[in-house]
Amino acid sequence: MSSPVLVGMADIKVAKGTGTLTCVGLGSCIGICAFDSSQGIAGLAHIMLPEAFDKNHVDKLGKFADTGVPELLRQMAELGANTRRLQIAIVGGAQVFKFGTPGTAPKMDIGARNIEAVQKALRDVNLQIQAKDVGGNLGRTVTLDVATGTVKVRTVSKAEIVLCNFKGAMPLAA
Amino acid sequence: MPQLTLEQIVSRTGDLPALPEATLSVMRETDKAEATARSVAQHIIKDQSLAARVLRLANSAFYGLPRQVNQIEEAVVILGMRTVKNLAMIASSYAWFAKELKGYGLGPQDMWRHSLATATAAQVIAEHTRKAPGDLAFCCGLLHDLGKLALHVWLDGSVDKVIQIAIQTGKPFDEIERAAFGFDHADVGAHLAAGWNLPESYKLSMNYHHRPDECPTPDPVVDMVHLGDYLAMSMGLGLGADGMVYALSEGALERLGLNESSLEELASKFLDAWEKSSSMTKELAA
Questions:
Q1: Are A96 and B233 a contacting pair at CB < 8 A?
Q2: pLDDT band per the 50, 70, 90 thresholds, residue A8
Q3: In which domain, by residue range, is A119 found?
């Protein structure tokens, strides 16, 4: 098997047929996995922040949720994907604690804001999320197998799990 | 976990970090009002290996100098003494931080990535808020997790248990460390650096980077390192087994005059700065 394609910070990668796409060490960032099972086309975006400050001057569209989602769709459409029928999984959006209040998250947290912004950006293009593994306080690595449509998540200190399989039965959103 | 005092832990841990004398004297020299390019350079060239690494960094693509710089004094003139001080700190600390720290679930280079990212973020925050010099925030950010270099040995094999306790109780990782050892990695770092006679901001930011509200002497650098650490963690840079099991102090944000929107703007600026500063790593690893 060829080595996985690393989707670095603010990157978007798309592939058709075979291969593996992966985001390593997601903290508050979110990996958006998108899949068109009829064409065997997959995409993975490594979103860092909720919104672009100036939409006319964004050096890397994948950096922000509001610019990254349309760009992911554009790149997948370019490969021949039907972007109205994409299946989606989102992974990441970890958060820190709120100081002095055990177990709660602070109101100004990038992780929580990223989850909200990614969900909104997907709603805006009428795409539903089939599976998600978001929040918590630990780093995650997500891999998307292009041939099988399998999304796996490895959380630090835990065993790897299969989050969903886009070609098989669809688990309910977590 | 063994019940040992902080001093016992440190004395029983082999291979502890030490800053080269040349780097310490460069730091002292750059703080003097009468320092010159020549006087700063003279301290660096006392240590030829340090001087070679500083020159390699100065000539890296990061600075994009129009021509090759071959003399330290020339590097000080072109880049400024504060930047060259940062380079001396980077060159001195890379070898410690590039190691694998199993106790914290950090692979080779992870601790280095986290340290350089925190330094870069702290400098971005300093330059944005103008409440402390950027080079000081950078160097304090670089060293903030020094204590992990000693404490990781003692956490090896038990870190998963500590994480479980932290997540179940909703308490930050450093608090669980304190419950287990009687002190945390921040205390160990401050203890390790005590003999180096570093300026007060270094000790305070090492000691209070997870609890800036408890810092006995208000110091904006402590808040900058706290938020720099938060940004580095949020962006997933060098996340270990302890992940993001730490607390964000909203007090630190308020003291620096920041809010939700400016924090995200700083995060974006930090990512731009990180793209450049992280490119220096290949010069060090060469």
A1: yes
A2: very high
A3: 5-165
